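A quick word before the example. In earlier lectures we treated sequence and structure as two separate objects. From today on, think of them as two lines of the same record. Here is Far11/STRP N-terminal domain-containing protein written that way.
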Amino acid sequence: MMEREEGNSSGIPTGPPRLSKIKEVVQRQRKDSEDEGSPDIDFEYNDDDSLPNEISELYSYTEYPEYNLNQQSFNELLLYFRFKDKSWGHLNMDEKRRYIMNLANMIDVSKPDERMKAIRAFLYLCQGCWLECQSDAECFQSIEENVVLLYDCGIFTAFVELLDMEIENQVTASHACRKLAVNINDSIELRVILSVIYTMVHVLRVHPDEFFRKEFQDELNTPIKGELLAIRLFSMITKFCSGTSPHFPMKKVLLLLWKVLLTSLGGFETLKKLKDEIREKNNLEAVIEDTVTISKQMRPASPPAACTEFGDPGNNFRKAGLSSYSQGARRLKAPKQHHIDLGMNPDDDDDDVEFDNSLQGSDNDKRSVFSNDISGSEVVDDNIDRIASTSPETSIINPGIRALPWTPKVRMGDLDQFLDYSRLKFVGYSLREDRTTLAGLPDPIHEAVKVLKKHMYISLSEKQIESENNILNRPILNKDVVPELTATEILYKAMLPSLPQNMISLLKILLAAAPTSKAKTDSINIMTDVIPDEIPYNSI
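And the structure line, produced from the sequence above:
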């Protein structure tokens, strides 16, 4: 046995000295992997981000040359409208309004070049007239001031009408359908219009004046030419996925749709407030905890290290008859993931995972360390058990309370189902909709019912379903019941006829964006608003 621990016929040590060497190598590899390929996740779970980050998400690197085109169009029209030797910052408020109204008249002309020049000038204003700014902070302040001024002049409604006109442009759509590869030049007008609307929606949504925000929210919930802006954007997604309009810039469309829904329906805080108000109207208890607030405080969960090691069918751990070791390794790995999920300090059990990873190496090392000889495997198993049980560095730390950070919730139907099953099992009959009679049931069932009733939760959806059933069953008695016409009700009523098509279209975009190693010959191309003109078709 001593000879087996010190070495074998091949001269490769198989005892604890070899395990410590493997552990040292794996620790070094793991440290390099964490430093290079696994950076810490830093994000904020909220409705939106700061203005600089939101603006950065809107544009792509291929749109960089268009910044100069916007600035040139703006300056040319300044000279055209006889604002000589003046920049935007040197104009007074009356001159700024006069210039904006001249641009608004110009976007209604029939000549595409002149109309596009005016649209680019508006985009330059929404970009904060960046050439005149000395710092980023000054530029973002200029963006907010210009957007408010544009909205006061009625430019938002004008650009929504422009968007509607470009959506119905059959000439551009047919030209894009005939092309082998649609690129960024096929969606110039749409991209500029969507960028202007997106910037205005984001800035006005977070405006400090509550009355101003409410006015803009009401405008988004009011149909323009008989249709909501959100419904227009949903129709763009459907047309893009059906192949009739492959030139639509989906990235900007989805970002704008997200902002429009967030503005018109409200964010997390609005949702929580409305939920509490409606629960109070229905005589329900207020929800003390908030799922979104708890989710913000949770740390992101990472997958276990080297998880492919256990799923490899050719792994020599399974061939060596060490199933008990594999189960032990998984038990060593479990506390690490559990601490991450609970937001606990992961440093306490780093050595547990390091010890688990230390037994992973090349297939040749595994064959030499864990041979098919049963006595040899017993030596290794004994060493593993001894180290895991005696060493303070590798002992499994008590993970504490194993529970989710939310209070358990029980539906009324869950309690009814549990009582029916228990009565049929112990008594032989069931009492429909009887939640109080517990005669003939054992004490553990009494305790279980007590716990279920303690965590009873009646959701708003159950109340709404009950109200709908009451209206359907007694239409004469409830003929005066009219549902409240909220923003959500208006939107849902408008999108209900095309709801299946919208869901399928969003699923297609999600699948097209998912990373895969297989070629997607039949999928849609969601990169049309990013691909430059000079890239050949065979390289896409």
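Notice the following. The two ends are 63 Å apart (CA to CA). We will return to this example when we discuss secondary structure assignment.
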